[in-house]
Amino acid sequence: MSRPMADSHRRFLQTMMSNGIISASQAEALHKHCCETHGAHYVADRLDDFINVINAQLQPLFMYIRKGMSEENGLEYYALVNMTETDITRMASDYADNELELFRKTMDLIVDSESGSASSTDILNSADSLRTKKLKKKETEHVLNKFVQDKWLNEKDGEYTLSVRCVVEMEQYMRTIYPDLIKVCHVCHNIALQCQMCENPACGIKVHLPCAARYFRARSDPHCPSCNDFWPHEIPEMQRFQSQSSQNLPSSSRENTAPTTSRRSRRS
Amino acid sequence: MSQRKKSVSASQNKTQRRSQASLNEDEEASFSQVSSSQVQRARENFTSDQIDRKVAEVVQFILIKDQKKMPIRRADIVKHVIKDYKLLYTDIINRVCRTFEQVFGLKLVETDPKNHIYILINKLDPIQGEPVSMRSVNPKKGLLFVILSVIFMKGGVIKENLVWNSLKKLRVDPGEKHDEFGDVKKVVTDEFVRQKYLEYVKIPHTEPVEYEFRWGLRSEKEVSKLKMLEFVGELFEQDPQSWTQQFREASTVDSSSQRTSS
Fold it and tell me: Where is this region: Disordered (chain A) (predicted)?
């Protein structure tokens, strides 16, 4: 028998529904807050147990709170994801058909690239071949901004990458659509897009940057964890990821101001 | 109740209303003619897995409608989700209600028993200073809050001009396109009305036609008048209790709604 939910769990779930995704540090603060608000027993390092109680009830509804790691900063996040695609969930989309097609094209470019990113120029060019309804250049830029605001894409210096929310929610979809292109990280076994790759053509495994930093830490002479060939990449420093984590503490107004247009909708 | 119906029909033209009415009667008839033996047979026709799945689909459907603040109609639920399971509508919707209360802390409330329109109401009180906002921050809520407080402080019903003038004092001109809200008049008289936050009703026997505003059902269920009065008190640096009539109403409403929810 699964344990019943209390108001502390319900408050946690409602917050997940209106935010879509929250960082692990936010989730910990929220866990404490929800337990204290409803006078429930709070155990600091039992967040995953707490979430499992919710997930047991969500499972028959085809929803799930899933943990994922950001490929950029190595931080963990919790996202509320939808496990099935039905006519009903498709209806949930806040985007027009041509906007969805643009998203799929962007995803194609990113998955097909070596860097795990796509330049705004390439995306704008691909928008010329939209079949549903053409988007003007200005409109395309506007839609891309919306994807970033809704936390489906990240953008840095004109390069677009898939956000952690997108990867966590679309994982199954991506594995189905790109069976040959999608590789998983050798260290954490999640989908790897922005990563380093073994240059031995017979091997070619991928490792996320934060995973590489952790794995190769304190190894002066790095070798591929699979084929043992020399690892020819610069090993990112752990510091880079840890320093970013301090910027992401609970207060995070950024998450709150982003318009959360969708709780659990499917985009493709 | 009759007021609300008027506000609904005011927005529809006559032919629409007529076809709507006959549609409702048909639907009503097919719902009331169901005999218990038919239901019993239907229960045997579907496996419990099939029913579970339908319940999940209805939950999803309602969550999506609610998220977009679109009306949740029984007719739509039947047409788009329930389909062949129509005989089991009551079984399914009862389980859906239970799921909303037990899993999500939400309550499905029928706001219009004639046309069978529901809304979802939050059973958990909003808490100040949450580490992560429980509700998505929507600037329109600020606009709504101002209008609701003006209505409440003026005794529950006010002419529309008073609302527009109050907004103008805050430099929100319903005649101009606002940077944040766009077409203010449309947001207030259409969106908020559709979402049941406000009622916008024609005043009878007025020439030229005048309209008045009241609180909508969703506001009555979701907004604490006591908290609103505290807010207004802070604004005017006055004790909330000094507005005796409003204070009395706020305290009775809040304590009675607590009784029903516990």
Answer: 241-268
